[in-house]
UniProtKB/TrEMBL annotation:
This is Uncharacterized protein. It comes from Capsella rubella. It comes from the Eukaryota.
Amino acid sequence: LDSCPLSLSELLPILNEDEALLVRELTQSLVLDEAIEWNAVEGKLDLH
């Protein structure tokens, strides 16, 4: 990769079919929505 994809539309074409399916399922999951917490101060996602 020359650069890091910054959106799903940039990421999905790079992935193989199984990886893309997993990413789509995770990003559409309500459970994941509730689990993700963005911490702007630390600049990272906490998925715990």
